[in-house]
Structures are given as C-alpha cells and as structure tokens.
C-alpha cells in the first residue's frame, strides 16, 4: 500500500514538473497588452475559454490544469485587467488570482460639479457617467451615508484618486464621500455637526470655492457672504447664476453674465432669493471649507475682481465704495 502511494505521488510530481515546464515555455499568440474582463461569478472554465478567445493562452487545458494543481480554481478575482503582452501562463495565473486589476488615476479639481465629476470618471475609465449620476442621486444611499442633502453635490471631496478600472459607481461615490468626512473632521477638529448646520456650511463653502481665486482671499470672501446673510441681504453671487445656467438649464458656461441672466427664475439664483440656495453649487476643497469654518471678522459687504491676471479682489464696506472707480471685467 505504501509503495503504491509513493508511486502515485511520484507520478503526480513528475506530471506537475512537466506541466510547469510546458507552461513556462508556452507564450500566448497575442504579444500586445490586452484588456481582459472577468465578470462576477465566472467559472474557471469560462475564464479559460475567454482567455483563449483573447489570444492570451493557446491551450485552455494547460491553464485549467495549472489552476487545479495549485488549488486555485475558485481564486480568480472579478475585475478589469490589462494583461501585458507575452505573459506566460504562470504570470497570467498570478495576475488573475491575486486580483491585480487595472488601476485608473483621476484628479477631481476643486469646485467641480457633480456632472463634471461624472464625466471625468468616465473619461478616466473608472465608471460610466450615467451610473455615477444615478448613484450620487440615490436619496436612500445619501441618507445611509449621513448626507444632509438629497444628493451628493458638495460632498464629493476633490482630490486625486486611484480606482480599479470599471469600478462600481456606488463604491466610487461612497469613497469620495468618506474622503469628505475624513477631511472635514481633520479641518474642524470634531465630528460632523447637526445636519442643517453641516449643509449650510457646505453650501456656503461651495459658493466661496467658485468665487475665490487666491487662497489668501477665501476667508474674506466668506466673511462678505456671512455679513450679507446676517443683514438679510441677498448674496448676489455670480457663481450661483452660472450654476443655474450650466447645471440646471444644461447650457454652456457663459463667458460673461448679462442682466437678463441675473433675472432667471430659479431658487439657486442668489440675486433673486435671499439666504442660501437650496443646495451646494460645487464640491468645495480644503481652502473653501477652512474659509467657512474659520471665517475672519470683517465689515465688508462687497467684493469685485481687481486684477484678472493675479485673481485678486477689491473688498468694500459700502456700495458707493464698491462701485467707485470700477473697472469692467469680463469673465469670472
């Protein structure tokens, strides 16, 4: 019985060695990088067949045998892969069973809107724009994540991210929200406040984000808006009107605003409505959040662009001072 077992073990080891040599020598027909997708729930046999069709293996039997010998039949990870040209069977096996999926790097600029972020994610190959917009508009998901608003606008923290290619949109949105709350706690020194307070802070920060150009002026711009709110004055932020035009009406970003634009009937138009708009108009970054959390005291009620090249503003306490020596500036 012992001799029989030893003989069987020897045969298995010999077969393994021969198969290993064959696998290392066998090169796939395709020598170029190949995008290869493993769907969730795919069997080892289905993956092997797909690899053969993609030209990544010449003989799927070798691949399946190697999987079985190593006990990895159930270890292939779902995802999108970029398989290097000329990969051997053993390296291909390692890539798929270790889940070395293709990664996509994407930078979300400060002040980006939800719609812009969705487009950037799609362009980077992270997830499809419609799927992301659906996830970010899911009220139940927003509530589950502790968001005070009805969607994710304002709470998708602008930063550089690395996501797996073809990620699930929901997971992408969740990660960006998690980054927001992490950064908020870091800046404020405490956990998130009551929902209404948090929403108001983010709404104001989203406006400041779209108005400031120099980080050193973000706090003063926040002070202007807070002073106007305290006096019951309309914010009169051009950024809110641009939001209405581009995000609510779906038009191109205007190069200049006209008086007729300031009269567009929309609750986000801060020229027509007092107080804060119903929700954020962008996704604010660190400087805008800091400006709202730690707003310096001032008596300023107005500001206007003073130097288009440097982005500096002139701040005023009265309308007369604000309009004196005004230099028309196109663009914002």
Notes on the structure:
This protein has 332 residues and is mainly alpha-helical. The protein has 3 domains: 22-97, 2-Layer Sandwich (Dna Ligase, domain 1); 103-188, Dna Ligase, domain 1; 207-323, no CATH class. The protein contains 13 helices and 6 strands. The protein has helices spanning 2-25, 44-53, 60-69, 89-97, 114-123, 129-136, 139-144, 169-188, 195-211, 218-231, 238-248, 286-293, 319-323; strands at residues 34-38, 79-83, 103-107, 160-164, 302-307, 312-316. The strands form 3 sheets. Strands 1-2 form a two-stranded antiparallel sheet. A two-stranded antiparallel sheet has the order 3-4. A hairpin with a 4-residue loop joins strand 5 and strand 6 (312-316). Residues 327-332 have low confidence and may be disordered.
The radius of gyration computed from the alpha-carbon positions, rounded to a whole number of angstroms, is 29 Å
* Helix/strand structural class: mainly alpha
Order of helices and strands, N to C?
HEHHEHEHHHEHHHHHEEH
Total domains, how many? 3
Strand content: 5-15%
Helix content: 40-55%
- Runs in which pLDDT lies below 50 for 5 or more consecutive residues are 327-332
The global form is: elongated
Indicate the mean pLDDT. 89
- Count the strands? 6
Please give a quick description of this structure.
The chain is mainly alpha-helical. The chain is built from 13 helices and six strands.
